[in-house]
Amino acid sequence: SQKPFSFSVISSKLLSLSLVVMSISKDETMLAPPPSFDPTKPSRPISFPIKTLQDLASRSYFDSFHFPFNRSSVPLRQNIGSLPDRSRLLVCHDMKGGYVDDKWVQGCGNNKGFAIWNWYLMDVFVYFAHSLVTLPPPCWTNTAHRHGVKVLGTFITEWDEGKATCKELLATKESAQMYAERLAELAAGLGFDGWLINIENVIDQVQIPNLKTFVSHLTKAMHSSVPGSLVIWYDSVTVKGSLAWQDQLNEMNKPFFDICDGIFMNYTWKENYPKESAKIAGDRKHDVYMGIDVFGRGTFGGGQWKANVALDLLKSSDVSAALFAPGWVYETDQPPDYHTAQNKWWSLVEKSWGIVQTYPQSLPLYSDFNQGLGSHVSLQGQKLSDAPWYNISCQSLQPLLEFNEGNKSETMQVTVDGREASYNGGGNISFKGTLKRNAHHTTRLFKPNLQLSGSHISVSYSVKSDERSMLGLLLRFSTPSQETKSLVMAPNEYMHRFGDMFLPCLRRTTSDWTVHEANLLMDGHTLTEISALCYGPDDLAEETNTQGYSALLGHISIKSQQKTKLFPPASAWVVEAHNIEIVPGDSGSRTVSCKLQWRLKHPEEDSVFTRYNVYAEKLNSSDYKSRKVMEEPRSEENFLGTAHVDAYYVSDMVVGPDVKKVRFVIQTWDEDGSWQELDTSPSVLVEAERLSSKLCCCGLI
User: Fold this and answer.
1) What would the pLDDT profile of 451-469 be if each residue is shown by its tens digit?
2) What average pLDDT does range 113-119 have in this prediction?
3) What pLDDT shows up at residue 16?
C-alpha cells in the first residue's frame, strides 16, 4: 500500500531556515563559523520561529528586539466572527521551508518574491514551516486581515526529536496547559488568529489524555484571548498514539476533532472519504478540511493543474478544502511567467469553489492595486523610489480580476503590472488591447457589499492614458426595492454615451495622472459591484473600425464626505531615536543605524494608524534652524521605506562627510488612502557628526 504523504514526507525537499550567512575567503580552506543570531540585539527586523520548548516557556520571544516589529497592525474585519456555515477554503502556505523574502519585516529588494493576491477565494490562511513554533510574518497577517481572511501559525513536532519534545510537553496536565497558554499569548500578542496543531510522531499512549488537554486548553485559551480564533488539528497521530494518517474522519481522530475547531485531513483520501467524513461530522461537516497537495504527491485528482478535480468533488460533498503549497506555481517556474501562471491556477480554484469574500463591507474603500512588490514606489503620481522592493504588508485591497487566456489580439489584456507607472505605491491595473467603433469593454474590479446611508459619498479614481483611450467606472447598486441600478462615472463630454446612467465628475491633473472625482447620495442603496469601463472616442470612421487601447488605472477611493478625522499635527507626537550607532566609513563618510519610535501624546480611539512612510533629510548645516520639514521628497534617497507599526529600524544608512545632522520624518497614512502633508508630519533630529571620530555609539536622542 502507498505510504501516506504527511507534512514531514512531502516537505522533505524544503530548504531549512538560516538566520546567518556563512562566508569563506579566497585564502580559507574551511567555512568560517557563522555569527550567532542574538534576537535581543538591535538589527534589521526579522521574523523567526521558536525552536525549543524552553524558549516557548520562558516567554523570551517577547524580550527580543524584533517582537514589536512583528506585531500585525491590521485588525481582522470587524464583522468576521465565526466562520460561515458553508464549505470553506483553507490555504496552507509552504514556501521553501518558510521565512524567505517574507522574513524581512520592513521589506527587501527582491520584487520577484512569492506573493498571494487571490484572497477573495479563501477563508483561512496557515503559515507553515518545520520549526516547533512557526509564527506568521506580520506581512501575511496584515494583508490577509485586510481581506477578511483569518491567519494561523503552526505548532509542529516530528521525527525522534518531536517524540522527545512531546514527552516534555505532555509530562503533566499542568505542563500541557502551560504550553497551550504560551501559544495563546503569542497569537494574541502578535495579532494572528490561532494555530494548526501537527503532531507527526508517535506518542506514548499514557500521554494521550494530556495531549487532549493540550488541544482543548489551547482552544479555550484562544477563544478567550482572541474572539473568533481557530485551533485546527492535523490528521496525523491517532488516539492510540500511533502515527497513522487516516485520510478521513473516524474514531481514530474524531476525539481530537471534538475538542477543537476543525481537522485538516491528510491528502491521500479516496473518492468516498469526503462524504463518509461529512456523515460522521454531522452538523460540523464544514469543519472538516480535506487536504489537497498542490504538488500532486499522492493527492486525489493529481493536484497541480488538476487541483480543481479534488475541489469539485469536495464542493459537491459539502465539506471544506485545505490547499497545501499553492506556491507550487512559483517554485516550479510554471510558464509563461509567474504572474500569468498564478492567475491562471487560481482561476481554476474560482471556477470550482466560487468567490467567498465580499469586500469591503464598510467605508472607506481604497485600493491602489499594490500587490506587495514592485519596481518603484510612487506617491500621488510622484516617484519616491525606483528601486525594486518586496513587502507584502503594503498590499492594498486586491481587485477580483478575471483571468482571460484568449487570443491577445482579440481581447483586452487586464493585468496588475508593477513595471508600469503607479499613482500610489507600486501597483496599477493595466488595460491593453483594441476596441471596435462605438464598443466598450468592462472589467470586474470589486464585488463589495456596501450599504449606504443618507450621507453623501465621494468617489475618485486616477487614470494615465493616451488621448484616445478613455477609462470610466461602472457602479452597480441594489435599490431598497431589490432592483438593480447602474451609474457610469466618466468625463462630462461623454454624457451622451451613457444617458440616464451618467454620473458627472470633475477632473484634476497630478503629475501625468488625471484624477476624476464625483459626489453622490444613494440612501438605502447597496453598492454590489465596481467595474472598469474602457471606451474610445466617437470619431472612428467606418473603414477604421478598430483602434489600439492603452490605459492605467492608478487607484479607486470611495469615502464618506462626513469624514472629520484629521491627521494629528507634528506637535501631537513624540518621536524618539534609540539604539543609535554611527560607524566611520571611507573618505569621511559614516553609516547610521537607529531605531525610530513614535507615539501620540494623547492617543484617541479614532487616531489609530497602520502605515507610515519614513524619510531622511540629510542636513549639511551644523547650525540647524527651525523651519519646515521637506515640503516634498526631493530625491529618492529621502525615502527610506514603510512602517506598519509605530517603529522603524534604520539600517546602515550612508551619510557623506558634509552631513552634520539627519532629520527623520514620519508621514502618516489613513485607511482612505490619504497621506499627511510632509511639512506637518512629526520628525526627530539625530546628530551625525558628534561621533565621527569614534567607532560607534548607542543611545537615545
Assistant:
1) 988 888 999 999 999 888 9
2) 96
3) 35
DSSP 3-state of 185: helix
Residue 13 has pLDDT above 50, yes or no: no
Give the single-character DSSP code of 332: T
CA distance 336 to 323: 23
Which grid coordinates are listed for 96? 521553501
Bridge pairing between strands 89-93 and 124-127: parallel
State the Cα–Cα distance between residues 593 and 583, nearest whole angstrom: 9
175 alpha-carbon distance from chain centroid: 34
- For 79, other C-beta atoms within 10 Å of its C-beta total 9
Q: Cα(343)–Cα(532) distance, rounded to whole angstroms?
A: 19
* 29 pLDDT above the threshold of 60: no
- Band of pLDDT at residue 31, cut at 50, 70 and 90: very low
Q: Which of 457, 458, 391 is closest to 427 using CA atoms?
A: 391
C-alpha cell at 561: 464626505
Give the largest Cα separation in the chain, rounded: 85
Residues 6 or more apart whose CB falls under 8 angstroms from that of 410 comprise 434
Rounded to an integer, what is the distance from CA 589 to the centroid of its chain?
A: 37
Tell me the pLDDT tens digit for each residue of 268-318: 999 999 999 999 999 999 999 999 999 999 999 999 999 999 999 999 999
Contact 614, 655 (CB under 8 A): no
Q: Collect all residues with Cβ–Cβ distance below 8 Å to 47 and sequence separation of at least 6.
A: 66, 70, 99, 102, 103, 104, 105, 135, 136, 137, 138
Which three cell numbers, joined as nine digits, stand for 323? Answer: 490547499
Q: Could you tell me which of 505, 480, 508 has the C-alpha nearest to residue 490?
A: 505
> Which residues make Cβ contacts (< 8 Å) with residue 26, sequence separation at least 6?
none
List pLDDT tens digits, range 385-411. 999 999 999 999 999 999 987 655 567
